Amino acid sequence: MTAWAKNFGKTASQDTLVDSFADRINAVILKQIPEIADDPVLVQDLHCSTRAEWREFVASLSEDHRLVRPGQGADLARTLARRGLDLGILLKVYRVAQQSVFQFLTEVIDGTSEDAPARDEILVFLWGLGGQWMADAVESLIETYYEERQRLRDDAVIRRAETIEALLGDAPPSADDATRLLGHPLSHWQTAYVVRAPEAGSSTTEAMLDVANAVAQALGTSRPLTMVAGSRDLWCWVATPHEPDLAQLPGLASALQQAGMQATIGRPGPGIQGFRTSHAEARAAENLTLKAAHGRALVRYDEEELLILVSAQETLMQRMVTREVGRLCSADKNLALLRETVLAYLTTLSIEATAEQLFVHKNTVRYRIARAEELLGHPLSQRSTQVELALRWVSLFGAPSDAT
């Protein structure tokens, strides 16, 4: 049994089986727990947790493996606590998972070779270890959940979180009351953004706050209003007397990349309404980046609004991309330069501004545009909206498989 367990552990830790396990278990969990299914950040935390738990469990089948509880499960527990969701949701995750894991292991064991130990013996062996593993996980994560809730019970943090939640809710308080409670002038222009660490365990709240402060400075103020909203995301707002210039933000992209962070920015808006709408837009931009194959460090809602609105229609969008810019979509690095140049030009509508943005000569821009128009079969003045939208899709999601 020991020899079989070691071999099984090696096989079960391969990426294909890990993905198969995580996708199957998570599909059942998300179907039965809408509070998680409706929140893209919780969905991602769940996926990371399931994958990490499975990898650590199969690694524990080796006698010389030192058991370590993966941090991704703790991230899920902390996010649930920070979202104000009940402990019962965390317990339900493991209760639902337990049934699915048993069925998964049963099917795996049914496929074992004839020289393996008896199937019922394997099942008893694995399920005994798995049951204990999940029981220990629940006990550990309950403690993590309550530790996070206790931390959040600090009076100042609670008042701030409750006021922000009220501002985003159906019956927001008056601007004067909220300004007094938050120390944040809600009569000013409001620009919301979300700072996110894409990888679990890759950052700390302090590091996210540093990034939040850098964005605030770029928008012309020294201190943002912030709310820790999950294990890897920080909700932020800055207030300015006048509408800020978002054109100052692109210079932050390299700093964000170095910090391993992403920031998504909503459009500025005045007063409480701006506080709400800008936040909704920043969250929508964040949801777009969660789906993207090529994550960008800085995403502005105002630049990607059309893409955000149509991203739910993935099949139709891919068909449009293939039709409009398919001939610009091969892996050739020269075509990548053409796509970058055309997208910059359609954004600026200026040869000079495009050349300055890309740090190339104006004649280089003209050559690339002429080459792109040749491949597209029409000038960029025609169907420019479709071409720009298609290229924005490719920059985030990659080319569809049928694009040539």
Essential attributes:
single chain, 404 residues, alpha+beta, Globin-like, Alpha-Beta Plaits, Arc Repressor Mutant, subunit A, 3 domains, six-stranded mixed beta sheet, 18 helices, flat
Strand content: 5-15%
Number of domains: 3
> Oligomerization state of this entry?
single chain
Give start-end ranges of low-pLDDT stretches: none
Major β-sheet annotation: 6 strands, mixed
Question: Could you state the order of secondary-structure elements as H and E?
Answer: HHHHHHHHHEHEEHEEHEHHHHHH
What is the CATH architecture descriptor of the largest domain?
Answer: Orthogonal Bundle
Total of DSSP H or I helical runs spanning 4+ residues: 18
The fold-level CATH name of the largest domain is Globin-like
Radius of gyration: 25 Å
Provide the residue-averaged pLDDT.
86
Shape: flat
Our measurement of the CA-to-CA distance between the termini, rounded to an integer number of angstroms, reads 52 Å
CATH class of the largest domain: Mainly Alpha
Structural class: alpha+beta
How helical, in percent, are the residues?
A: 55-70%
Domain PucR C-terminal helix-turn-helix: 338-391
Domain CdaR GGDEF-like: 169-285
Domain RsbT co-antagonist protein RsbRD N-terminal: 20-155
Organism: Streptomyces mirabilis
Brief synopsis:
This protein is an alpha+beta fold and 404 residues long. It has 18 helices and six strands.
Structural commentary:
It holds the Pfam family RsbRD_N. This is Helix-turn-helix domain-containing protein. InterPro entries: CdaR-like_regulators, CdaR_GGDEF, PucR_C-HTH_dom, PucR_C-HTH_sf, RsbRD_N_dom. Residues 169-285 form the CdaR GGDEF-like domain. The protein is an alpha+beta fold. It folds into 3 domains: 2-152, Orthogonal Bundle (Globin-like), CATH 1.10.490; 186-307, Alpha-Beta Plaits, CATH 3.30.70; 313-397, Arc Repressor Mutant, subunit A (Orthogonal Bundle), CATH 1.10.10.2840. It has 18 helices and 6 strands. It has helices spanning 2-12, 15-32, 34-37, 40-59, 71-82, 87-110, 119-152, 155-168, 175-182, 205-218, 253-259, 271-291, 301-310, 314-325, 333-348, 351-358, 362-376, 384-397; strands at 189-196, 225-228, 233-240, 262-265, 269-270, 298-300. Strands 1, 2, 3, 4, 5 and 6 form a 6-stranded mixed sheet that branches. The radius of gyration is 25 Å and the shape is flat. The termini are far apart. The mean pLDDT is 86.
